[in-house]
Design a protein that fits this description.
38% helix, Rossmann fold, 6-stranded mixed β-sheet, 28 helices, single chain, binds adenosine-5'-triphosphate
Length: 715
C-alpha cells in the first residue's frame, strides 16, 4: 500500500493512560506511536492466547482416544486461527463511542479515557489481554457495526472513527472522522480510497477494512431470510457474499456448524480465485462447489445443443420427471395372504387400495412412502391378528413386513426407482417420454430431448451436465436432499430453472444469498428476472437489493462498457465508479496480419505496470495467442493459477472471465468474442463481462470493426 501522510493531528481525547493503550514504561507521546504500541501489545496478547492453547494438557480431560482426537483437532484449528499473520494487520480501525455501548442512556458526557468499553480497536479476530479485557474486537461483533454504518447524518453514538494505514505490516498512518462534531468537514477518506485502489496481485482479498454501508446491510442481514443482490460489475457482490458467510458463521456458529454452509460458483477457476478470502477471515469450514459438482451422480461426457439444454433446464421438466417417477405406481388388483405358523391372514384388495391411496395422497417422498408401505400392510395384518385373539408385538409387525408376500406386493405396487436409470429411459424411450410429457412439452421439444441412439446402460450413456441435473431432481423426488443451513450462489444469473431447483433443495430448510447481474447472463437460459429465478429456487419471498457503486472498474472503462447496456439489459442502471483515477482506456486498431503481435506488444506494455495482467480473448483465439506469447518469451498463467510478482500475465478464454479481475486487461478482437456465442445478445453480454474485468486500465486491440453498439454515435 502507498504511504499515506497522517490525515489528522492528535485526537483531543487520546492520552497515554487510555485504557486501550498498554501501560508500558516508555509510552510514546505521539498518537501514531501510541497506536503502534497498542498494536505491539495486541500482538503480544495474541501470542499469549496462542501459547495458552498450546500449553493445554489434555491427558486428564479426555476419557477416551476418540474424544482426545476430536479435542486435539479443535485445538489445532484454534492454534491456527490464532496465528499472527505478517501481512494481515491485527486491527484496521478504531471506534471511540460517546457512551459505553449497551448503556446508551448512561450519562457519560464525553468519551473518557478512564472508562473501559468506550474505545474499540476493530480487527479480523478477537484478542484479549491476560485479564480477559478486549484489545481487538472482531469486525463482526455488534459493537463493530458503526465502523461500517455510522455517518455524520447518523453517528450511532460514535465520537471518533479512525482508520489505520499499513505499509508492509507496519502501522504507518491513520485518518480520523469526528462523526459527532458538526464543525468537522467531510475529508473524503484518503486511506479508504487508497485501500480501494490498491493494485491487485494474487487471489481475491478480503474487504473487511472498507466494507461500505450498503454492502454491510447485506453482509449483516439476518440468517432466516434469503437475500438476492443484483449488482453491476465490480460492485462487490462476490466480496459481500463471502463476508456474509463469515458474518453468519460468527453470529450463528453453532447452528451452522451443525447444518453446514456452501458457496456455489460458476467454475473451478473462479472458486480458486476466491478460495483465500474465507480462510483470511478465519473461516475454514465452508464448502465450495460448482453446480456440476453438486449434481455429479453420472459421468458427464456428452454435450447438448443449446436448444436441448434449454428444454432440459426448463422448469416444466420437473413435472415430466414427477410423472416419470410415479409412472411405475400400480393400484392393487388382488388381495394378499400372509402365512404365520398355522394361520393365514388375508388383506383384501379394498384395504390395500386404501393404504396405497392414502400414501399417494400424502406429501412425502417416493422412497419414504415405499419404506412405509410394508409397515402399513403389516399393521393391517396385525389388526387382524388382534381381532383373531392373538397378542402380537412390534417384532411381529416387522416380521410380517419382511415376508415374501408383503415384499412382492410392495415391488408390484411401489417399484423401486433408480434415478439414473429412470432418466436414461426417459431420454431413450420415445413412448415413455410421450407418456410423461403429455400436455407439458410439445412434439418438437420431445424430439430435442431424445438421444439420437438409445443408451444401453448408465455407465455408457452420453450424459450431459443438464442430464445430471435431471438425475438430481429425480433423486430428490425419491429421497429428500439434505439441506444446508446457508448457501451462497454467485453468478446466479446463468443458472437454468432446473439448476435453481438443484441449488434450492440444498437450502430448502435454510436460507440463501443469491448474487448476480442480469446483464452478465451468458447462457441461453439466463434469467431475465430475479423474481422468477427466486421462485425456482424456492425462495420467492427473498429480499432483492441492488448495488450500483462499482469498486473495480475505473470510470472511463465502465462508461465505455456501459454503452452495451441498452442492447443487453435495457432496464438496468449503469454502474458508477468509486475509484478516483479515471483509469486508462486505450483502443488500438491494427491490420489483421499484425493483430497477434499488437496484442503481445500491448501485454508487454501492461507488464511495465504494477499488478496483474489479463489477456482476454475469444475461446477460439486462445491457442493462437498462447503460441504468440510463447514465441515472444512472455510467460503466462492459466485462469485460477495464482499470480505472483514473477508471473503476472494470465491468458483467459472469454468464457472463463466471469467474476475474475486484473489490474490491466488487454482485450483481444471484440467481434471474435461476440461471434463466439450462439446469438448476438449473448455475444454482447460476454463482451460486457470481458470489458469490465479491469481495475486500472483496459487496452482493446482489434483488426475487425468494433461492434456498432460500442460506437457512441450509434446509440
Ligand atoms: N467495500 C470495498 N472496499 C474495497 N474493495 C472493494 C469493496 N467492495 C468491493 N471491492 C473490490 O472490488 C472488486 C470487485 O468486487 P467483486 O468481485 O466482489 O464484484 P462483483 O460485483 O462480484 O463483480 P462481477 O459482477 O464483475 O463479478 C474486488 O476487487 C473487491 O475486492
Amino acid at each position: 500500500m502507498r504511504e499515506i501522510p497522517e490525515a489528522t493531528p492528535v485526537p483531543t481525547h487520546a492520552r497515554p493512560d487510555d485504557p486501550g493503550i498498554p501501560h508500558e514504561p516508555d509510552i510514546p507521546d505521539d498518537p501514531l506511536g501510541r497506536e503502534r504500541s497498542h498494536l505491539a501489545a495486541s500482538r503480544a496478547a495474541l501470542s499469549a492466547m496462542r501459547a495458552d492453547v498450546q500449553a493445554l494438557d489434555l491427558t486428564d480431560v479426555t476419557g477416551n482416544w476418540v474424544n482426545a482426537r476430536i479435542l486435539q483437532r479443535e485445538i489445532t484449528a484454534r492454534i491456527a486461527a490464532l496465528a499472527d499473520l505478517a501481512d494481515t494487520p491485527l486491527f484496521f480501525g478504531r471506534l471511540d463511542y460517546l457512551h459505553t455501548p449497551g448503556e446508551a442512556d448512561s450519562p457519560l458526557p464525553q468519551p473518557s479515557a478512564d472508562e473501559h468499553g468506550t474505545r474499540f480497536y476493530i480487527g479480523r479476530r478477537h484478542v484479549h489481554d491476560k485479564d480477559g479485557d478486549p484489545m481487538v474486537i472482531d469486525w463482526r461483533a455488534p459493537v463493530s457495526q458503526p465502523f461500517y454504518r455510522a455517518s455524520r447524518a447518523e453517528p450511532m453514538d460514535v465520537a471518533l472513527r479512525r482508520r489505520f494505514g499499513y505499509t508492509g505490516g507496519e502501522l504507518t498512518a491513520y485518518e480520523d472522522e469526528h462523526l459527532s462534531d458538526p464543525s468537522e468537514a467531510d475529508t473524503g477518506g484518503a486511506l479508504l480510497q487508497a485501500e480501494i485502489e490498491r493494485p491487485r496481485v494474487g487471489p481475491m482479498r478480503d474487504i473487511v477494512a472498507t466494507i461500505q454501508p450498503e454492502q454491510d446491510e447485506i453482509v449483516r442481514a439476518g440468517i432466516s431470510g434469503t437475500v438476492c443482490v443484483q449488482g453491476a460489475p465490480g460492485t462487490g457482490k462476490t466480496a459481500v457474499g463471502l463476508h456474509r458467510v463469515a458474518y453468519l458463521l460468527y453470529a450463528h456458529r453453532e447452528r451452522l456448524a451443525r447444518t453446514g454452509t456452501l458457496v456455489v460458483g460458476p467454475n473451478r477457476s473462479f472458486l480458486h480465485y476466491i478460495e483465500q478470502v474465507l480462510p483470511a477471515l478465519g473461516e475454514l469450514d465452508v464448502a465450495q462447489a460448482t453446480v456440476e459438482e453438486l449434481v455429479a451422480h453420472v459421468p458427464v461426457r456428452g454435450t447438448d445443443s443449446a436448444a436441448a439444454a434449454q428444454i432440459k433446464g426448463d422448469a416444466r421438466m420437473a413435472e415430466v420427471l414427477r410423472r416419470a417417477v410415479g409412472s411405475g405406481l400400480r393400484m392393487p388388483t388382488e388381495g394378499l395372504v400372509v402365512v404365520r405358523g398355522s394361520r393365514r391372514w388375508r388383506v383384501p384388495v379394498y384395504e390395500l387400495d386404501e393404504i396405497v391411496t392414502e400414501l399417494r395422497e400424502r406429501d412425502i417422498r417416493y422412497g419414504a412412502a415405499r419404506e412405509a408401505l410394508p409397515q402399513r400392510i403389516a399393521h393391517a395384518v396385525l389388526v387382524k391378528m388382534e381381532l383373531g385373539g392373538e397378542a402380537p408385538d412390534d417384532r411381529v409387525q416387522d416380521a410380517v413386513a419382511r415376508t415374501k408376500a408383503v415384499k412382492d406386493a410392495v415391488k408390484e405396487l411401489w417399484p423401486p426407482v433408480d434415478p439414473a436409470k429412470l432418466v436414461l429411459r426417459l431420454l431413450s424411450d420415445g413412448e415413455f417420454l410421450d407418456q410423461c410429457s403429455e400436455g407439458v412439452l410439445t412434439e418438437d421439444e420431445r424430439k430435442l430431448l431424445l438421444w439420437s441412439k438409445p443408451a444401453r446402460g448408465v455407465g455408457s450413456a452420453p450424459w450431459s451436465f443438464a442430464d445430471a441435473v435431471l438425475v438430481d431432481e429425480v433423486r430428490d423426488l425419491v429421497q429428500r436432499t439434505h439441506s444446508l443451513g446457508h448457501v451462497v450462489v454467485d453468478e446466479a444469473q446463468d443458472l437454468s430453472p432446473m439448476q435453481y431447483r438443484a441449488v434450492g433443495r440444498r437450502c430448502s430448510t435454510g436460507s440463501a444469498t443469491v448474487l448476480g447481474d442480469i446483464a452478465q447472463g451468458t447462457t441461453p437460459w439466463a434469467t431475465g428476472s430475479w423474481q422468477e429465478a427466486l421462485s425456482h429456487l424456492g425462495k420467492a419471498e427473498a429480499r432483492i437489493e441492488e448495488l450500483t457503486r462499482g469498486f473495480r472498474v475505473p470510470r472511463s472503462v465502465i462508461d465505455y462498457a456501459s454503452r452495451l447496456l441498452p442492447s443487453i439489459a435495457p432496464g438496468l442502471a449503469p454502474a458508477t465508479s468509486v475509484r478516483d483515477s479515471p483509469g486508462s482506456l486505450d483502443i488500438r486498431t491494427v491490420e489483421a496480419a499484425g493483430l497477434d503481435s499488437a496484442v503481445v506488444a500491448a501485454c508487454r506494455e501492461a507488464l511495465t505496470h504494477e499488478g496483474s495482467i489479463g489477456l482476454i480473448a475469444a475461446d477460439a483465439r486462445i491457442p493462437g495467442l498462447a503460441e504468440a506469447l510463447d514465441a515472444a518469451g512472455l510467460s503466462r498463467l492459466e485462469p485460477g493459477e495464482e499470480t505472483s510478482r514473477q508471473a503476472r500475465l494470465t491468458l483467459v478464454p472469454a468464457s472463463l472471465a466471469k467474476g475474475l479481475e486484473y489490474d490491466y486487461v488487454v482485450a483481444d478482437e471484440p467481434v471474435a468474442i461476440v461471434d463466439g456465442e450462439p446469438d448476438e445478445r449473448t455475444g454482447l453480454r460476454r463482451l460486457y463481462v470481458v470489458l469490465t474485468r479491469a481495475v486500472s486500465g483496459l487496452t482493446i486491440v482489434h483488426a475487425a470493426p468494433l461492434p456498432r453498439e460500442l460506437d457512441s454515435d450509434a446509440r
